[in-house]
Batch of 2 targets.
Target 1
Amino acid sequence: MDQEKEDFPITALHEIKILQGLQHDNIVRLIKMCRLPVENLSRSKFYFTFKFCDRNLAGILRNVQVKFSLGHIKSIMQQLLNALYFIHTNYIIHRDIKPANILITRNDVHKLADFVMQGETEQHQLQLIASLCGSIEPSVWPDVDLLPLYNKMKLLEGERRKVYDRLKPYIQEPLALNLIDRLLILDPKQRIDADNAFDSDFFYSDPPVADLKELLSKYHSMFDLKQTSRNLNHQKSKFLNLPCEPIY
């Protein structure tokens, strides 16, 4: 990292500060953090303890046996929107929303995790956005050129909007496609927010919202497959007894 405080990455400090102030069912909960000196190294190792979630959405999607119904997808979307509404009302944005950062408990509670942006640079992120949502320019986002850094960034030009084209092969439900398209509008004045997204016809059409508890109960989590409960308890005991210095 370019800047560190007592050998601790600034980005990690940023995430800790965020998680300390966010207490919500759909946000992963930070229980504690500690530092463990490493022999023969000038730096320490840092350990985070989070509320246990035995699955993430990426792992579930990789399981070809798991088939989500449209009702299941609505449940995932609603819980994700709950998390987004909460952080946005607290003036926080999540810049790396992806299946791997959506954790799921055994009781089908979805939790948003990892508030550290993993992209290369802000410039790179803007290029990715433009390649999907179209060029960032005043014709689609009035007065965007008045923003302080607009003329200091090298933005893609001549890019057309491709949201529908990219998603149509994967999303057959028109109402779902329409909702995602509205969530990805460049102009913030036209873009639907998390609160208003709940009013989308997508959530009020058939089939109704269906939780994933029964579906997921049929499949082992990635932790069940890797270790027995005895081994998990051993690892838990080993970690809790580490002679580390508490930080939080």
Target 2
Amino acid sequence: MLLSMVYAVTRRLLSLPALLLRCDVSKEAELLVLRHENAVLRRQVPRVRYEPADRLWLAALSSLIPRFRWAKVFSVTPATLLAWHRRLVAKRWDYSQRRRPGRPPTAAAVKALVLRMAAQNPHVGPQAYPRRTNPPRPHDRLFYRVEHPEPSRNRSCPAPHRADVEAVLTAQAEHIVAVDFLHVDTIDLKRLYALVMLEHGSRRGHLLGVTANPTGLWCTQAARNFLMAADTTNLKFLIRDRGGQFTDAFDAVFADAGICVLSSPPQAPKANAHCERIIGTLRRELLDHMLILNEQHLRRILSRYLEHYNTARPHRSIAQLCPAQAEAGPPSPIDLANHRVDRRLILGGLISEYQIAG
């Protein structure tokens, strides 16, 4: 592939002298023919596919053409640029060549022994099987994995011990906040991290900070800044994952404010599902449609979007109201026949807000 790309580029470079030596009239006529032919092909072909050599050649020629004429000369759209950037980021973080095999399967002899012991001891649970063998003894989990290859989906607690999970979570929601990191790759493939917080009760989102090096000291300072500016009277619990950035000093800052820090189980992102949800929203509605230039750019657009998120974006969990409306009360119905609705563009038109004209 590399040799073919070098050959294609070299061949096109050698054709430049012949083009430069032609007279201006013939070159202009040929350019008009090629431009018209290109327009016809664009109408007939829904999508043009470029090889790596084509992209390299177009990138080299783009330096000779004024930027304001790129839209007429090249068929590359903003969506194409975003797709190329996503592909470049995925290629950089692709570790498939270094992938290692997973845990080896259980030996057939061990499986046969476990099943035989289970059949011979029907009244004894798996936890008692290792005690019936000589060392080295199989682990308890091995017996359960062999006897129950598929997890049971019909388990249920007895009625007296069954709890209404939704009722419990709703009652505690106003006292819970959650934090998690959002990572973004800039246009030059530099990875940035944003610390995002979500209030479970009001669904308000907060940006605690943006950095390229999220150390424990940085997270601790971000926590202090949040507690100094926010009203934490009703907050009792903070949910976070087990990332190394959340140190004991980070937990101590919230503990001093009367907030108990709860660590989610290892490798269990669903335990912090609400915060994962807002991170997914930030990606789908904002970051997937923009190329981030630097740390200041990311901080600015996240702050502006969270302002829209808290004051204008409806949420299903709070009856299609935004957090500000849920706290102040739902607005009164308005007869649209007697009012005009104005549109306000946010972040260059990526997001639209609508309000009654004053």
